[in-house]
Specification:
The complex is a heterodimer of chains A (about 250) and B (about 300). Chain A has ten helices and ten strands. The relative contact order of chain A is 0.18. With about 250 residues, chain A is an alpha/beta fold. Chain A has a domain at about 5-90 and about 165-245: P-loop containing nucleotide triphosphate hydrolases (Rossmann fold). Chain B is mainly alpha-helical and about 300 residues long. Helices cover about 75% and strands about 5% of the residues of chain B. Chain B has a two-stranded antiparallel sheet with strand order 1-2. Classes of the chains: A alpha/beta (about 250), B mainly alpha (about 300). The interface of A and B includes residues 94 and 101 of A.
Chain lengths: ~250, ~300
């Protein structure tokens, strides 16, 4: 399996607080990898580092074999890494379709690409992806009028609109009605299988992540504690100690 | 009071003032719309707005000095100011995006002073105007006279507003501008170069002001220190209309134009500027009261 994302000794501090210490992590092309750990273990900081929200202090982040740790957020996004947040970030005063279309990748980079009109194929793809996440009937609704769960799905569809190679999903099922969670898991799997999107997922819902991920990483206090299959990580005594507070 | 009686007794005069006011207001809408755009997208109050109008006026003036009709100065001023706005963004504005609103007021106030002094050095402090020589239209048996230049200016202002509206609604960049205004962080993670969107927005705003200035110099006058009155007017219109409300900007702009004309007639032309500034105080008090009431309601 080709490594798509490789983190090697990534460290990040905020003042005196070490949020990430010498993190090694690898995600292969086509994989679904989970990232778990108690609150405050540094998972979101790691996502922010990968997506370029802040520079790292040490180590390297390679995507498709190329160093990306010095690139800015939009540059990383254009390389094919898109992330979502715990709180949804949709454009509330635009319709679902407009949210989708504005998320389409532009053939030419920067302003030159943006000066053109909205292509018809972008509209068709937006429609198909809204259908994929079950929001086709709401395509002309304002994003701000959708329920939190629907905004989550819209944000997911917007991320797919950019044709990402790697999606970083920060708690994709948080705040979603439990009856809809299986639908979300199903769509994540289908995006992975049908659209060839590699997934790296932070998730607190153990049932979801054990069910979804092929491999798991567990962090605690900013360090990588364990890695392996869901079964291996679940039975690792260090992971149990981190979650249950034992020694 | 006497003048009020005159208005009552001569309805055609009232109509004349109303028409003049609406025509004047349409020109005010342009810098106001640009200000709303920059404020909404970049969270920056551009105090140099009126100075861009002033520069646009000088560009059109120099076009007329070259023997070309000053109306051709409108696209030239828009193009020159677009480039100028882009440069100002790269030199100053990009350093203050994401900072406190007060920082933006101070920085753009500084730009305004620099532009005034530069204009004074380059063009002198003389009051200038560019003659359009387009004649007048007479209505109701010549009781109402409208300068054709005003009609042309309003038509250009309307066309520009419609083009801008369609551009923001249907173009890729327009959508990117709207998306960036609503959620810049989301825009960045989805690959939109928000710094380029900001630069484009600021340059576009300068271009709109430039076009407005090219119209102003043909209808009224310009001098290096005239910018502030246009900044104040734009600010007032945006405060009344709110951000992201094109129809509101147009209505508030036309309303301000009409109010100014009537105030100028009733109080005397020498009090026109005083009226504008007083109206600003009243509007700010009214707005802050509305916000306080809303806060009370939300408690």
């Amino acid at each position: 399996m080709n490594p798509l994302l490789e983190l090697d000794g990534v460290s990040k501090s905020f003042g005196g607080v070490r949020a990430n210490t010498a993190i090694d992590l690898a995600v292969g092309e086509g994989e679904i990898v989970g990232l778990i750990g108690p609150n405050g273990s540094g998972k979101t900081t790691l996502f922010n580092s990968i997506a370029g929200h802040h520079p790292i202090d040490a180590g390297s982040i390679r995507f498709a074999g190329q160093e990306i740790s010095r690139l800015r957020v939009p540059q990383i996004a254009r390389r094919g890494i898109i992330r979502t947040f715990q709180q949804t970030r949709v454009y509330r005063r635009m319709t679902c379709m407009q949210n989708m279309v504005v998320s389409a990748p532009v053939a030419a980079q920067g302003i030159a690409g943006m000066l053109g009109r909205i292509a018809r194929e972008d509209g068709e793809r937006a429609q198909a992806l809204l259908d994929f996440v079950g929001l086709a009937a709401l395509r002309h609704s304002q994003a701000g009028d959708l329920s939190f769960g629907q905004q989550r799905l819209l944000e997911f569809a917007m991320a797919l609109m950019r044709r990402p190679r790697l999606l970083l999903l920060d708690e994709p099922t948080a705040g979603i009605n439990p009856t809809l969670i299986n639908g979300v898991i199903d769509r994540l799997r289908r995006a992975n299988a049908e659209l060839q999107v590699t997934l790296l997922v932070i998730e607190h819902n153990m049932r979801v992540i054990m069910n979804l991920a092929q491999r798991l990483y567990c962090m605690s206090h900013g360090e990588m504690l364990a890695a392996g299959t869901p079964g291996e990580v679940r039975n690792d005594p260090r992971v149990l100690a981190a979650y249950l507070g034992g020694s | 009071m006497d003048n009020l009686l005159v208005l009552w007794q001569a309805p055609t005069l009232t109509l004349q003032l109303l028409i003049d006011g609406v025509l004047v207001g349409a020109i005010y809408c342009l810098p106001a719309y640009g200000m709303a755009l920059v404020w909404g997208v970049m969270k920056i109050i551009n105090v140099a707005q009126g100075d861009f109008v002033m520069l646009g006026g000088y560009v059109a003036l120099y076009v007329s000095y070259a023997g070309i009709h000053p109306m051709f100065g409108v696209p030239v001023a828009a193009a020159v100011l677009f480039v100028f706005g882009w440069i100002v963004y790269q030199l100053v504005i990009r350093h203050i995006v994401d900072r406190d609103l007060f920082v933006s007021v101070l920085a753009t106030f500084g730009i305004s002073i620099v532009l005034q002094q530069l204009a004074n050095q380059l063009f002198s402090a003389n009051v200038e105007t560019a003659e359009a020589n387009l004649g007048s239209t007479y209505l109701f048996g010549s009781t109402i006279v409208v300068g054709n230049i005003k009609l042309v200016a309003v038509a250009i202002a309307l066309v520009l507003a419609v083009v801008l509206f369609l551009f923001l609604k249907h173009s890729r960049l327009g959508q990117a501008i709207r998306a960036t205004a609503q959620n810049p962080r989301a825009a960045r993670i989805l690959g939109i170069e928000t710094s380029q969107v900001f630069a484009m927005t600021y340059a576009l705003n300068a271009a709109i002001c430039g076009a407005a200035g090219a119209l102003v110099v043909q209808i009224w006058i310009i001098h290096p220190y005239i910018g502030l009155t246009y900044t104040i007017r734009a600010f007032m219109i945006v405060v009344v209309a709110g951000l992201g409300n094109i129809a509101g900007v147009v209505l508030a702009g036309l309303g301000l134009g009409a109010a100014e004309q009537f105030a100028s007639f009733l109080l005397g032309a020498e009090y026109q500027a005083a009226f504008v500034f007083s109206l600003l105080v009243v509007i700010l008090l009214w707005r802050s009261q509305m916000l306080a009431r809303r806060r009370l309601y939300l408690k």
